[in-house]
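Honest question from a wet-lab person: if I give you the sequences of every part of a complex, can you actually get the arrangement of the whole thing, not just the pieces? Trying it with mine:
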Amino acid sequence: MGFESINEVRQGKYFEIDTKENDKKKAEEKVEEMCKKLLANLVIENYNIIESR
Amino acid sequence: MNSSVITFPGSNCDRDMDIALKKFGFKNKMVWHDDLELPKSDLVVLPGGFSYGDYLRCGSMASKSRIMKSVLNFAKGGGKVMGICNGFQILVEAGLLPGVLLRNKYLEFICKNIFVKVNNKNNSYFKDLKKNILELHIAHNEGNYFCSKEQIKEIDDNNQVALFYSDESGNINEENNPNGSIKNIAGIFNKEKNVLGMMPHPERMIDPALSGEDGSIFFENLINNLK
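Yes, you can. This is the full assembly:
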């Protein structure tokens, strides 16, 4: 297809989480916990919280 | 001997397992995933199927269902917990067994009879089993066992491999590895050997008219070991 500059492609899952928590730091902590407990399997996956607003 | 089979939404081997357990003398109860307490059990079985439609990852949602708290406590107290196929996936997601089951190597759903070699008989599941190689059935899309290098070392050091995929004579090599599992692993134990997860279905091999009888050999031996 002509995209010759590509080195590697990674596919993953993307979640948008709407929370009642107003404190950004607390919300991130909760999401972190969710990732560890359910959303990601750390044997094969890693996760990254990319934006909270 | 009392056994319990947990039914999750999407389980489809739960009744087969119920029939198999009863055939070999277990008093079996079916337990709903949303229940809080396990009935008095000598063995708890997580059956095959597609719990929660395999959403997120196979077994991940089921591993967090309400009954699993009791199953975890039961296992931590030394209770015998066996997971078959999707049940194996649930056990790794619940953290009762190490590793994870990835998509099959050739990206196809596999449904066929295979042979497994029993690796460790020093436990209540396989002690005194009269055969070393069993013909069982597999039916899965995610049976490719994977774990980290540290985990595989620990598994080896503690003799936690229960079953290897093999040929009829017990040769373990890439040719008879159906799904790409590390070291041909078809089933593993926890360190204490009271929790067993395996991809093959012994409950599908209990009727000489329909299949083989190697599942019968397994269940007969299991109930005798638990007595």
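Two things worth pointing out. Chain A has one helix and no strands. The interface with chain B takes residues 13, 37-39, 41, 43-44 of chain A (CB under 8 Å).
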